[in-house]
Amino acid sequence: MPDIPDREILMDKLIGYQAREHWMGHEVLTIADVWPAEPRAMIVGLNPAPSSVEVGHYYQGQVGQSQLRKLAAAGLFGAPSGRYFEGAALAARVGFTDIVKRPSRGEGDVGADEIRYGSAQLTDNLRARGVGLIVCVFRHPVKVLLGSEGVAGMQPKVTPWGARVFRMPGPFDKRENVERVMSELSEYLDAGE
Fold it and tell me: The Uracil-DNA glycosylase-like domain covers which part of the protein (predicted)?
């Protein structure tokens, strides 16, 4: 009969893109940044949801899945074969990261101190890798990168290193607004910028 690993060892195994990282003096179970070798774009969120960390993949909630399907439909990357978008995104040289590495249920659970702490790391990483397009799923990353939340769509201001920033429409925005805003991204991608 084979040896059965004890419960502690089983619980220590990481799945998907799970990672243990030091965050503001504490070790947290989170989702690792997913960096393409030569990034064309990065999808930036505020922080990972517990449901995403649990399975080790970005945007596993209903809202997150809907937002990623909109990005696939706009042409940022191809449609995945299942619930996980990282493979399709990486094939298109698109990656994933968050400002705050500590998982929480929503923005109300994330402190301003955590956003400040993660902002410097985020901008340093994006700049060092020469990321030219940053897709912000929600408003927080836009404010971190450009100083204000802006409105949904391609932002007129660029980052200090010249990257374009696209803010997605809200997950519950009116259909006509979503279509208009997402067509901005499609046109930008079609132009090959």
Answer: 36-147
Q: Would you say residue 92 has pLDDT above 90?
A: yes
Q: What pLDDT does 193 receive?
A: 65
Measured CA to CA, the distance from residue 87 to residue 91 in angstroms comes to 6
Contact predicate 44/99, CB 8 Å: yes
CATH at 113? 3.40.470.10
* Six-digit token string for 149: 């939340």
Residue 62's CB is within 10 A of a number of other CB atoms, namely 10
What does the alpha-carbon distance between residue 4 and residue 19 come to, in Å, rounded to a whole number? 24
State the Cα–Cα distance between residues 152 and 182, nearest whole angstrom. 9
- Would the pTM count as exceeding 0.85? yes
Token look-up 């998982």 returns: 103
Total structural domains within the chain: 1
